[in-house]
Each structure stands twice: as structure tokens, then as C-alpha cells.
């Protein structure tokens, strides 16, 4: 068995050497081989130089340098595509995830689970209303919508069997929803408490704007989970309902004209009828267009959501 540790890096120069030494120390006596893949996501500090320095000392530390900042999801995606391990473990590179928890995740995988998600403990001390409560609400909302109950979707530290995560479409902020994707494919998922360490260097790259992006991506994955293969069932349902309402609206206007002598221009029903019929036709056309796009989606494309400027210590081609 081989383990691949995936580190998305963005302006973390101050923590990288300490993180590498901690990982190396925790896995020194591990009964398996491992590799570390660091993805430099367009850092503007000295992260690139620090990563290259570490990589020059060992071939098990591999580096991907992006041309620009593509975001954490793209970085994790690149790490997954270039990993050769049987078990993949993404984790933050800011020392907030404890490297000592990696072995706990691997142990759970070896017990028969396909996905093991970390649940950070002690993260919100003194910030109940401003941080912890919104986090609880968000995680419960995501759990309810996806049907996969986890306490901490935002924890990067997770472990995946390679065959479960391979081929998962990742874009936007969707790396945090990988457990949901895996569950829809029949994966066995569990969650374990992991340690949380306050950031020692630099500043957090998370903000309110990311929260809004996550919520928008949540809407997308809910749609994809139910209607990815048959979007016409979604758009066509709205279209059919709109056409039916338009029919009843037109019938009501006609009955008022025949039996109550109410002229069409004296009631909004004719205008409502036209609007509903037009909306119904539009939804059905959108459904047809979505069906065409789905077929295009399923065709082999091979286009990545990121661009790599350079690679270090990658002697093997990506495992497919």
C-alpha cells in the first residue's frame, strides 16, 4: 500500500518546512510507503522557493507549480490526478491540521471504509455566535441537502480510497463535497474527531465571499445529484406545470367572457395565460438544451481546470 498526501499551498511559506518535518516524523515508523504532493496555487510569497528547497532533499516530496491562483479545489484536483497512492489524504498546509491524525484516518480506511472525514475539535473557542453557530447551521444544511451527515464539511483533512475519488468532477468550491459525491456512488463513509491547531504563520485565506460560493455550489450539486442524467425531468416538470396553469388561466378567461360577459381587456387572465405558456415552452426548450449539454459532458474531453507551470520529482506519468 502507498499513501499520497496532498497539500494545496497558497502563501504558506512560513509553515511549509515545519509541516514537512512533522509529517515525516509522524510517518517515520509507518508500515507503508508514502509521497507528499504540494501544489503551489500561484503563491505570491516565498512558498515556491521553500517547496523547491524541500523537494531537492528528497524524491518523495513532489511539487506542482500553477501558472496562477486557481483555488483550493483545483489544487486538490491536480494532486489527485498526479497521485500514485492507493489512499489519498488532502490536508491544509497551514499547520491547522495535525499530521498525527493521518494514521488515524488510514486506520479507519483499513477497517473497510472508503471515505474518512475529519471533524475538527476545539476550533471555535470563544466564537460561538460569530463563527461556531453559522458553521453548525451550514453543516446541517449541507448534510440535509446532500443526505450525507457530517459535522465538518469544511475540514480538508480526509482520507479516500483511490478508486472512490478518481474521476470525481471538481470545480468551484466543490472539494468539500467529495464525500457526498462518493456516497452517491455507494461509498462507505465515516467521520472521526481530529485535532485543530491555531494558525502559526500568515493569515487565513477564508472569507465571507467563500461562504457564498459554497452555498451556490451546494445548489449545483443538489441539482446534479437528482437530475444530472435526466435534466429534462427537472426543466420539463416546471414547463409542463406552467403549460397546465396557462391552460386553466386561459379557460377561466374564456368562461368569464362567455358566461359573465367580462371582456378580455378587463381581466389580467389573458396576459397571464400568454406568460405561463411562454414560460412553459421556455422551460421545455431549456430541458432539451440541457439534455444536449449532458451528452456533450459525457464525451471524453481531457481538459483540466488548471494550468501547470512546472513539476518537480515527477518521474512517473499520472496514474489513471
TrEMBL record:
GO terms for cellular component: plasma membrane. It comes from the Bacteria. SUPFAM superfamilies: Nucleotide-diphospho-sugar transferases. InterPro entries: Glyco_trans_2-like, Glycosyltransferase_2, Nucleotide-diphossugar_trans. The chain crosses the membrane at residues 234-259, 271-294. Keywords: Cell membrane, Glycosyltransferase, Lipopolysaccharide biosynthesis, Membrane, Transferase, Transmembrane, Transmembrane helix. GO terms for molecular function: undecaprenyl-phosphate 4-deoxy-4-formamido-L-arabinose transferase activity. GO terms for biological process: lipopolysaccharide biosynthetic process. Residues 4-165 form the Glycosyltransferase 2-like domain. This is Glycosyl transferase. It comes from Candidatus Zambryskibacteria bacterium RIFCSPHIGHO2_01_FULL_44_22b.
Amino acid at each position: 500500500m502507498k499513501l499520497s498526501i496532498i497539500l494545496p499551498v497558497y502563501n504558506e511559506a512560513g509553515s511549509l518546512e515545519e509541516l514537512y518535518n512533522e509529517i515525516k516524523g509522524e510517518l517515520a515508523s509507518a508500515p507503508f510507503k508514502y509521497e507528499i504532493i504540494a501544489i503551489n496555487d500561484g503563491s505570491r510569497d516565498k512558498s515556491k522557493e521553500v517547496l523547491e528547497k524541500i523537494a531537492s532533499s528528497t524524491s518523495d516530496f513532489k511539487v506542482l507549480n500553477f501558472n496562477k491562483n486557481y483555488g483550493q479545489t483545483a489544487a486538490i484536483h491536480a494532486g489527485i490526478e498526479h497521485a500514485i497512492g492507493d489512499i489519498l489524504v488532502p490536508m491544509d498546509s497551514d499547520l491547522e491540521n495535525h499530521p498525527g491524525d493521518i494514521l488515524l484516518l488510514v486506520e479507519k480506511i483499513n477497517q473497510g471504509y472508503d471515505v474518512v472525514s475529519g471533524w475538527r475539535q476545539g476550533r471555535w473557542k470563544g466564537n460561538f455566535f460569530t463563527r461556531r453557530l453559522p458553521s453548525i447551521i451550514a453543516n446541517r444544511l449541507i448534510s440535509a441537502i446532500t443526505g450525507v451527515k457530517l459535522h465538518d464539511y469544511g475540514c480538508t483533512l480526509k482520507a479516500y480510497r483511490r478508486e472512490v475519488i478518481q474521476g470525481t468532477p471538481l470545480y468551484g468550491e466543490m472539494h468539500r463535497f467529495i464525500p457526498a459525491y462518493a456516497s452517491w456512488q455507494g461509498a462507505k463513509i465515516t467521520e472521526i474527531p481530529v485535532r485543530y491547531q491555531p494558525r502559526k504563520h500568515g493569515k487565513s485565506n477564508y472569507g465571507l465571499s467563500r461562504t457564498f460560493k459554497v452555498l451556490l455550489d451546494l445548489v449545483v450539486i443538489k441539482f446534479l445529484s437528482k437530475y444530472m442524467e435526466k435534466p429534462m425531468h427537472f426543466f420539463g416538470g416546471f414547463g409542463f406545470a406552467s403549460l397546465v396553469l396557462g391552460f386553466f388561466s386561459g379557460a377561466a378567461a374564456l368562461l368569464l367572457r362567455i358566461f359573465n360577459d367580462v371582456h378580455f381587456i378587463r381581466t389580467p387572465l389573458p396576459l397571464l395565460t400568454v406568460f405561463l405558456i411562454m414560460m412553459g415552452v421556455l422551460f421545455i426548450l431549456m430541458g432539451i438544451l440541457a439534455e444536449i449539454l449532458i451528452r456533450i459532458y459525457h464525451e471524453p474531453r481531457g481538459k483540466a481546470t488548471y494550468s501547470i507551470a512546472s513539476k518537480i520529482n515527477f518521474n512517473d506519468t499520472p496514474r489513471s
